[in-house]
Design goal:
five-stranded mixed sheet, 7 helices, Maltoporin, Chain A, mainly beta, single chain, globular
């Protein structure tokens, strides 16, 4: 570690000798191709348009800026999207939120879909597990569309949409680039990146683009020695064989192959293949417990890892029928994640508080170590197709519309294992499962959509849109204990033979569907070529789904109504964009842990989000400065009750049910801060025949609630505000560049998520009944990272 730090320090001195430390900046909405261009082209409305001409709140960051901001993964880019918040458990397990539209979803495999849609080029790639953690290299840009995007993007774009747009093959020219990076993380290990691409011309009308990458993210969490004694049996467990420093390292590697063929002046075909493997070891959370005295430490008693493999095959055909544009696109994605997780806290606290260890015995009736761990396999299949047409963009009346279809299948396998338990309490067909989840979830979406824009005058335009949609979702399979362990759940309540392979029988077979219509109205006025104002009334939706607990009905869709006024202005070197909005969230799909740790979802009421967002960009000569920020006041408007039903009051218990108050009206929604902001300054200047730069970035996230429910939030606690700083200095020649950089320069220990292995009142142990107190895990941002990178164009 010292040797690497010394090398980086010497490299720093060499670069500093050729540069002058100055402040510099970047625009929040960045150019798609070059830093010198004032034209930012986006495809938010499914047409290519200048950012300043689109009456929509958009943030776009282009190729070069993604590199300049040290963006390597999804979490990195979110820092520079003021309206976006990310909540992550580990690589590949992240949820994204816009404008405070978050109720604390736990992303359980049987729970609600995300509120934000994610697209890779034309294909939706949102899964219940969260956004794909794609290595960010050779992207044309990232577009963040704030507010409901339901008419053009449909289900799960209720609060916003993220578009990851790759660089397309470039006919007629052969070129490429390769880059290397070496980095070290404070209190951690050594990492690095190797990446490159080649764009090979196949003639004047065809090209092949091959991209590849490998990234090693160094570990920084230590698994320290610990032991615990189970109250009932007196069995002592330790983790001596798992003690390791910096044990949460990640290896990510993948490739993309894209072909572009221009059949003639009007027709283009672009098939693409892309895949990635990400292997993560260890835990990505620091522990709060009596066993841990320092940050970036944890005590885990079972192996923890995840292997995330996915590939995508897609094709887009674009052409003209007369003077109308036709786009036909489709694709197929498969994803497989294999995980191992520690679940010993669940075993320990239920034994300490309620004596559950007495139930876990071997075939002789002797107690076994009640330690639990989880081995899971999730298999995803997703197919989609869309056909759309667009009238000429210069006509006074313009139309864009089409048909959409997608089918998502999620095969779920979760093995909750206690080694050595007797056959009578082992789930049939497993080696040592105390619990098994073996289910197949299928989500189907169908839609017809369209938008019409009419230029009332040369400066005033009215746009109306709608989406007629149908969803049809089902969940079938098995979950629960063996009949020898429980007479009320699992095998004891099966009603049929196994439907899903690997399950002993079937105790769940439910479906839900609905058809509805959502709308959008937009009126925009172009005061002059540099000033645009607009007003929008739009709605987004999220499909309903299945509660796997048989006694609960399916939950219905929730909707988000957006009332927004925005402006876009450009005055010479200044660009100033902003929006003020109110969003009403109705029939919220509220998820929480019920009995046996099963997620339950209710349509639990309404919330209101009022806020504004803005970014200011200044560019003059080699100096640029950007200030961006958002403010969101997000609160629920009526009491959230356990039985989310208007016919019952929270103070009244329906017969046989408990309608407890979960959160009173006026409670703030969790996860998102009231204020989030960033500032980026950059200065570029010549050094002989070369170009040098210095850049400094600040990011601030305010205090956030961890949970909507006051009791649970009191156990886990609020997430404190934190500020990070990034700095870089570099130099660029005709075909090469080198840069020294540091991220999280102040070494902030910012918390982005927190949780427990079971219910907060059990594993959080608020009453301190167990000998060690509660165990809470805080997912934190990466500590200070210092690196050097070089690249060569050819």
């Amino acid at each position: 570690m010292r040797n690497v730090t010394s090398v980086l320090a010497r490299a720093s001195g060499a670069l500093l000798a050729t540069t002058i430390l100055c402040t510099s900046g970047t625009a929040l909405a960045q150019e798609a191709d070059t830093n010198d261009s004032d034209d930012i082209v986006v495809t938010a409305s499914k047409r290519e348009e200048n950012l300043q001409d689109v009456p929509l709140a958009i943030t776009a960051i282009g190729t070069e800026r993604l590199d300049e901001l040290q963006v390597k993964e999804f979490q990195d880019v979110v820092k520079f999207l003021p309206s976006v918040t990310i909540q992550t458990l580990a690589p590949g397990f992240s949820q994204v939120y816009f404008r405070g539209v978050a109720s604390g979803e736990n992303a359980n495999h049987s729970a609600s879909l995300p509120t934000v849609g994610t697209y890779l080029d034309e294909m939706p790639i949102t899964t219940i597990q969260g956004a794909l953690d794609i290595h960010a290299y050779d992207f044309a840009r990232v577009e963040a569309l704030a507010g409901p995007q339901g008419t053009l993007y449909g289900a799960s774009s209720m609060a916003g949409t993220i578009k990851l747009i790759t660089n397309a093959p470039d006919p007629g020219s052969t070129y490429g680039s390769a880059g290397l990076e070496l980095n070290t993380v404070k209190s951690g290990d050594i990492g690095g990146v190797a990446e490159g691409f080649i764009n090979a011309s196949l003639g004047e009308r065809a090209a092949l683009r091959l991209v590849g990458w490998y990234r090693r993210d160094a570990g920084y969490i230590d698994n320290i020695a610990g032991s615990r004694t189970y109250a009932t049996s007196g069995i002592t467990q330790n983790n001596a064989d798992l003690v390791e420093e910096n044990y949460n390292q990640v290896d990510t590697y993948g490739a993309r192959l894209a072909l572009g063929i221009e059949l003639d002046d009007d027709w283009t075909i672009r098939p693409t293949l892309m895949g990635q493997i990400q292997k993560a070891d260890g835990s990505f959370a620091q522990e709060r417990s009596s066993a841990v005295t320092r940050k970036l430490q944890t005590v885990q008693y079972n192996p923890e890892r995840s292997d995330d493999k996915w590939f995508q095959a897609a094709m887009t055909i674009e052409g003209k029928i007369g003077n109308w544009d036709l786009t036909v696109t489709g694709g197929h994605m498969r994803r497989k994640t294999e995980t191992e997780s520690d679940y010993s806290d669940y075993a320990y606290f239920y034994d300490a508080l309620y004596g559950y260890g007495a139930y876990f015995t071997d075939n002789n009736g002797d107690p076994v170590n009640p330690n639990q761990y989880i081995q899971g396999i999730d298999r995803y299949k997703r197919s989609f197709a869309e056909v759309r047409v667009a009238s000429p963009a210069d006509a006074r009346i313009r139309f864009i519309g089409g048909l959409f279809w997608q089918r998502q299948a999620h095969n779920i396998e979760q093995n909750y294992i206690i080694d050595g338990i007797g056959d009578a309490i082992t789930v049939t067909g497993t080696d040592s499962n105390i619990w098994l989840t073996q289910q197949l979830r299928i989500d189907r979406d169908y839609a017809a959509f369209g938008e019409i824009s009419f230029d009332i005058t040369d400066k005033l335009t009215l746009t109306g849109g709608g989406r007629l949609y149908k969803f049809d979702n089902s969940l079938v399979g098995f979950f629960g204990y063996s009949a020898g362990f429980s007479s009320r759940t699992g095998e004891a309540v099966c009603f049929g033979p196994p439907v899903v392979a690997g399950s002993p029988c079937t105790n769940l077979d439910k479906s839900t569907s609905d058809t509805d219509f959502i709308h959008k109205l937009n009126l925009n006025y172009k005061i002059n070529d540099d000033v645009l104002i607009y007003g929008t009334w739009s709605r987004g939706f999220r499909p309903g789904g299945i509660n796997r607990r048989g006694t609960l009905p399916p939950y219905g869709p929730d909707t988000l109504d957006n009332y927004e006024f925005g402006f876009k202005t450009s005055f010479g070197p200044f660009r100033f964009n902003g929006a003020v909005y109110q969003e009403d969230w109705n029939n919220i799909q509220l998820s929480f842990l019920g009995a046996n740790g099963l997620t339950e979802i209710r349509n639990a009421g309404i919330a209101r989000i009022r806020g504004f967002e803005a970014d200011i960009n200044f560019r003059e000569g080699g100096f640029s400065l950007n200030l961006g920020g958002s403010y969101n006041d997000a609160t629920i408007r009526r009491d959230f009750c356990r039985i989310a039903n208007d016919e019952f009051d929270c103070t009244i218990d329906p017969p046989g049910q408990t309608n407890a108050l979960l959160a009173p009206a006026g409670s703030r929604l969790p996860v998102t801060a009231k204020f989030k902001g960033n500032a980026v300054a950059r200065y570029e200047f010549p050094v002989g025949d070369m170009e040098a730069h210095v850049q400094f970035a600040l990011n601030h996230i305010g205090k956030r609630r961890s949970d909507l429910r006051p009791f649970e939030n009191g156990i886990v606690g609020n997430f404190g505000a934190y500020t990070t700083g990034d700095v870089s200095i570099g130099i660029k020649g005709d075909s090469w560049d080198a840069e020294l950089f540091a991220t999280n320069l102040f070494n902030s220990n910012g918390v982005i998520n927190a949780g427990v292995q079971c219910g907060e009142s059990i594993c959080g142990d608020p009453d301190g009944i167990s000998s060690t107190g509660g165990v809470i895990y805080d997912n934190v941002i990466r500590p200070r990272l210092i690196g050097i990178k070089v690249s060569k164009d050819f």
